[in-house]
Structure formats: structure tokens, C-alpha cells
Specification:
The structure is a single chain. The chain has helices at about 5-10, 15-30, 40-55, 55-70, 75. By secondary structure, the protein is mainly alpha-helical. The protein has a domain at about 40-75. The model has no long low-confidence stretch (mean pLDDT about 85). Helices cover about 80% and strands about 0% of the residues.
């Protein structure tokens, strides 16, 4: 899926779906941190932009902080 398709998909998501997608995206980036991938960075940028558009930047920050402090949560969900 290209970034434009991702933007369209995100726009149609409910806040709950966005929350789950954001969590998965951040987990993917943490799991692959040793191999920096521009695709993952770009995906996170697009997801953050959607959070920003909705006025939910804090949602992104909160999930990122949570996963940063305990990356093992990615293994359970």
C-alpha cells in the first residue's frame, strides 16, 4: 500500500481503529529498530499526520511513550 492509500484508509478509520493501527505501526518500528526502514518512518509520519488532523496528537505521544517504556507489550498484542 502506498502512502496515499494509507492516508485514505486512515481518514476512514474510527478513533478506536486508528488507535489499534497506531499501536501496531509503532510496535513494528520498535521491533525493527536495528534496521532503519524509511517505509516504516514514512508510515508513522502519515499516521501522526492523521492524529494531528483529528486533534489527537497526544494519542500518538501516549502510545509511543507506553511502548518506549515497555516494548514487550508488542509481543502480547
Amino acid at each position: 500500500m502506498d502512502l496515499e492509500e494509507l492516508e485514505e484508509l486512515l481518514e476512514r478509520m474510527s478513533d478506536q481503529e486508528l488507535f489499534r493501527f497506531l499501536r501496531k505501526s509503532i510496535c513494528k518500528s520498535f521491533m525493527d529498530i536495528q534496521h532503519h526502514h524509511d517505509d516504516l518512518s514514512n508510515e508513522l509520519d502519515v499516521v501522526f499526520s492523521e492524529c494531528q488532523r483529528r486533534g489527537k496528537e497526544r494519542l500518538y505521544d501516549k502510545i509511543y511513550e507506553s511502548i518506549s517504556s515497555d516494548p514487550d507489550v508488542c509481543k502480547t498484542g
